[in-house]
Records
---
Amino acid sequence: METYTPVRAPRGSQRTAKGWIQEAALRMLMNNLDPEVAENPEELIVYGGRGKAARDWRAFHTIVDTLRRLEDDQTLLIQSGKPVAVLRTHEMAPRVLLANSNLVPKWASWEEFDRLDRAGLMMYGQMTAGSWIYIGTQGIVQGTYETFAAAGEKHFGGSLAGTITVTAGLGGMGGAQPLAVKLAGGVSINIEIDPVRIRRRLETRYLDEVAGSLEEAIRRAEQAKNNREAVSIAVQGNAAELLPELVRLGFTPDLVTDQTSAHDPMWGYLPPARSDEDLNVLRARDPEAYLRRAREAMAGHVRAILELQRRGAVAFDYGNNLRAQAQIAGVENAFGYPGFVPAFIRDAFCEGRGPFRWVALSGDPEDIRATDRALLELFPEDAKLQRWLRYAGEHIAFQGLPARICWLGYRERDRAALLFNEMVADGRLSAPIVIGRDHLDAGSVASPYRETEAMLDGSDAVSDWPLLNFAVGAASGAAWMSFHHGGGVGMGYSQHSGLVAVADGSDQAARRLRLCLTNDPAMGVIRHADAGYERALEVARERGLDLPSLGV
Ligand code: NAD
């Protein structure tokens, strides 16, 4: 067996590939697997349970070699993390097209996926893992902040000051929760089973304190709440045990949610185990029995959330499909609390607003600082953005290549991208910038228990939209595009597309950026206008979209 050697993206303004897009793809693939970035790089696992960047190490090395020889008029095809072909296309075409974890709907179950995975025929791409634009926990911080800030605005008079949030899961993305709640002014108790994850969040300053027990965490949280002090507290334990324990103790938080990897009941969500029991043995010996255990645990977890909601907590699902798993295990009213998108985010989606991220290929933090300053000047009227960028500049630790994220909408992302391109061209930035986004975005995903939950016209499960988004990105000059299945909520529950663009300072880059970063967020406005959202129709009219069926 090959020995594992940690991977780290090259830095600087010299490239080894034939064009900057190929170089960007190579560096971003490597950056996804940087031990500072990935949750379990040795297994090629980036985040989200078992979201991988490449099928296996052999595939990884072949991708790297192929990107290095790829010409400016060729396109590399990736099928579930394996490079399968190089085609002659044209200069404006994407340099890489990726399809990860896609199954024909009738076969789209974890069982079938696992069979194919074991046979070496597939890998799970999650969202940005398989599409090489994951940037560590910082990537999700701002989206998580947007959600908690919106909860503060909607339910608590403007911020989360003087409130306590209870959540679980301090993994790759869940690890953003303590910082996001703190940023929104609140106190959080974060339950996590794995002490290594807790330590990691402490070290990267996403988390403030660890309590020795649940009771201690509650005491500390109440003290902070009374002082209106924003602080994050972790407690080690299983959410399926500690949430019911909260109910027994009679403690009701102001907000309750969860970000364990419940979307993957076999590998992501850990059911409680006796101290002398190794659940890996049960999983290997009797996967069905293991699944029942995991789902029963999730049922108890959801019942506790529903009870806390009944006692007055604002409960929302944080996009991990916990409710569906509990429903399978017999909790009939598992969907008695809403998902975070209909609860807090849909208005932003109507404006094509969503997570816009960029990465400095130079590796120089000064490049990100320069882009921060440029965006502060470009969008002086956006108070939330101003607050976020100033905070992030001071407090967010970089992981891997320096990167930034903020939420921008339709007719904003193209302006930001073109500005970055100018800054590369005139030397204000020392190397090209990679621009991408999460698949969790306004017009790129069909996920009835998450992004498209409770659509106005009932079109939650229509996945023509992410397919159109994938095609539009490819037709509009994206650097690489991906189409995935099962991200966020697991097999059978979602289809989504990812876009990455590169600002290398060239005229061709400007043309690509103008097209793809206008048309990509436009898909969010179009999708929501089509579903009848008034705000999306307004945006479409104001910002000049052409929607023939709506008379706009
Ligand atoms: P991850 O696999 O990196 O982390 C999951 C964490 O949960 C791990 O640290 C694990 O130890 C912990 N855990 C598992 N079972 C537990 C239990 N019973 N009790 C306590 N802790 C437990 O995954 P991630 O990247 O952090 O994502 C977590 C989930 O949140 C995924 O399902 C993802 O799809 C979802 N998610 C949604 C959004 C969103 O914006 N809606 C964003 C991020 C993640």
---
Amino acid sequence: MPAGVKFMFRLLCGSNMFVFSSEGDWDNTEYEEEIMYPIVKKEKLADKIYLMDVKAPRVAQYCEPGQFVIVKMDEHGERIPLTICDYDREAGTITIVFQTVGASTERMVALEAGDAFEDFVGPLGCPSDLIDEDIETLKKKKILFIAGGVGTAPVYPQVKWLHEHGVDCDVIMGSRNKDLLILEDEMRAVATNLYVTTDDGSYGFHGTGTAQLQALWDEGVRYDHCVAIGPMIMMKFVCKLTKELGIHTIVSMNPIMVDGTGMCGACRLVVGDEVKFACVDGPEFDGHLVDFDQAMKRQQQYKTEEGRAMLKQQEGDTHHGGCGQCS
Ligand code: FES
């Protein structure tokens, strides 16, 4: 591209809109305003967990529950994938919730209302299958969501959507302790029955979400469909139990992501006998088919150069290497 030429490219594909923009200065004020994504609200929800409302009208217009965005603070920033916690089509805002887990999310904490993200790409991934089902069929199902930690954030828009469409669903939401619980009031307003759990017993049911499900089942409560979102280890154990109980279970996978468009291979998973990429084939999958042990091992390996080289060898043609970090 000749020096000085800038570009902004938006591709609408199905319900996905991909936004690509050049980095650096943009001397047209109108476009400058268009490609920046201001934070209109910031709130601390719990220790190291923050909520932000970000003005991103086009993402807000097209997003659906289950999808995610990739944000970038500035030209030096890392791409950070974040699930969509809520959206307001009228106000043109997206609500994101994030936990500080590394240098990039620590930097994000420094942003305040009035600051802006340079890139806010989305909506990415496939919407939840539930929103395509016939509403009357959904109403006949006994649906349960199990949310762990910040997994409560992506569960919330799905429960809210079902509630708005007259579909009942129960929610088990848990965290390590009372201080780490988020969005309890919001969830209580949309869930039919809300069961809160803490690992240390400081609030609600003493134990994990899996233990709470077992307790409900022992009391005679039955479910046809479960959606579990949280740490991989939690989803693994939920799926182990729901398989025994015969409850169809969907999980939302959160492997390492780089480009979010299926090009880099970072988010590779094995689901049944197939290789899938969470960013374009998911993030939701049949939990009883996901190879969690492989996904967790891969998550660790991908963090080091040596691990990525090993993955390249093990995964052959299905390891894209498009991220440029392992070629
Ligand atoms: Fe999914 Fe790159 S993040 S292929």
